[in-house]
Amino acid sequence: MRPIDALVDATNYTMLETGQPLHAFDYDVLRKRANGKPTIITRRAEEGEKLTTLDEHQLTLTSETELVTDTAGPLSLAGVMGGQESGISAESTQVLLESATWNFINIRKTSSRYRINSEASYRFSRDVHPALTEQALSLCLRRMQEWAGGEVVEGVIDQYPLKREDPVNTLTETDIERSLGVRVDIKEAKAILERLGFSCKLEDEVLTAKAPANRTDIETGLVGKANLIEEVSRIYGFERIPTRRLTGGNCHRKWALSKLNLRSRCATSWFRWACRTRSPIARLRSNERQSFCLIARRMRRFVMSNSPIRSRLSER
Fold first, then answer.
1. Could you tell me if 219 and 181 are in contact, meaning their C-beta atoms sit under 8 angstroms apart?
2. Angle, helix 221-236 to helix 186-195, in steps of 10 degrees
3. CB-CB neighbours of 122 under 10 Å
4. What is the tens place of the pLDDT at every residue in 236-279?
5. From CA 160, how far away is CA 33, in angstroms rounded?
6. Contact predicate 208/193, CB 8 Å
7. Closest CA to 151 of 200, 74, 94, 111
8. Closest by alpha carbon to 93, among 35, 21, 32?
């Protein structure tokens, strides 16, 4: 971030506070380019189109690049960096402020393609919720007015064709106990989620939670339910969750330590071979590790018999 003047500082401070990047255009430059009232357009670049960014690098664009343009040509690399021509300078007296949200995958590809790691691309590539745009816009305009003077023009041009719905998930005490192994009172879970900004409603011991606008990591369905349980567990406290054995059991054969079982297994040649093999390896300071299965023992034979890898191997 470069401290150019109070106007740019307002956009930077607002971005740091809200997580929403903003970009300020010199409105007089836009009027001059358009010979009148400018029209802001978002579109893909034409193959070979040129743009000089704020860091004075001239880019040759591909057709996969998203741009903010006017009728005269490109203005900025959408979600990554503004253009040099329309940027704020010491002579700027009128400002057009942009607060937008972009597809995070597209921004990630654009930033990687042109090797530009800006503050804006860092945030947009991790997904920014559209609800933050209006909040950041209002806050930034107020700061611009306080720090640089001037008047704020009434009205906001808002284009929001694909509105994002905040995910809604349901949760019960049984769901929490099944995942954590400890029973957490559903009212306590509701209080925890509300402290984290979720909108919650409890009916018939079923908790319905709507994610806040700043939580783009919360999903729906089974994954969304797991997201809620994770939020509850970290505030509830991992140290309060008791240690228990996994119900799926151990992938290796369980060796009972009772004398009766030990004698019966020692009689088998396989066990004797295993003992003879373990001893020299242990003397070499090696450790034996036994992994845990993610499925119950009764399901392993079914999974193995229906494995696509096994079917391909049998065809060879």
1. no
2. 90
3. 13
4. 999 998 887 655 444 444 444 444 454 454 446 666 777 778 88
5. 26
6. no
7. 94
8. 32
Fold entry, domain 168-240: Phenylalanyl-tRNA Synthetase; Chain B, domain 1 (3.30.56)
Q: Which has the closest alpha carbon to 121: 111, 132, 131, 136?
A: 111
Q: Which residues contact 39 (CB under 8 A, 6 or more apart)?
A: 70, 71
Give Cα 65 distance to the centre of its chain.
22
Task: Name the residue with tokens 């905040």.
Answer: 166
Tokens found for residue 287: 């450790």
* Identity of the residue numbered 286: S
Q: What is the homologous superfamily of the domain 6-148 according to CATH?
A: Phenylalanyl-trna Synthetase, Chain B, domain 3 (3.50.40.10)
Q: How far apart are CA 202 and CA 186, in angstroms?
A: 8
The pLDDT tens digits for 133-167 are 999 999 999 999 999 988 998 888 888 877 888 89
d(CA 47, CA 226): 44
Nearest alpha-carbon partner for 240 in 171, 194, 176, 195? 176
Residue with tokens 């007296």: 93
